[in-house]
Design goal:
Layout lengths: L12 H15 L7 H13 L5 E7 L2 E6 L3 H18 L9 E6 L5 E4 L8 H9 L1
Antiparallel strand pairs: 1-2, 1-3, 3-4
Helix pairs in contact: 1-2
Length: 130
Amino acid sequence: MTIFKEKQINKSLPSLLGNMQKIAQSVIINAKFLSDFEINDRLTLERCKEPSLFAWYVYDYGTHLFPLNDMNQVAEFQKEWLQGQSVFENKKQSNDDRLYVLNVFTGDLKRVFEFKREKNLVDHLQKAAG
């Protein structure tokens, strides 16, 4: 019997982060904007201790990562980010925005298509999460 609890090792995280990095580098227009991913997203995922699903939005000027267990954050993303993007459409340098659902412990990374036209993003993301 041991008195120390073994730290759970997430073996799929390095592969997941590698795939995310490739995506971020292909979508984000300037290396200086990769800090969203390199600092914030990476740190959040590395600190994740329980199996968790996240939504990950990648656009020309950075990324936005938020947990799918908080539907208020999903609704806020839909209202503040997606509906607000229409204001910037003519100023954006790229229209290659992407949305993914990722599972930190399995390493799954699924792209969500047609998310900008979705009226109920919560349902759309839950379907993508499977």
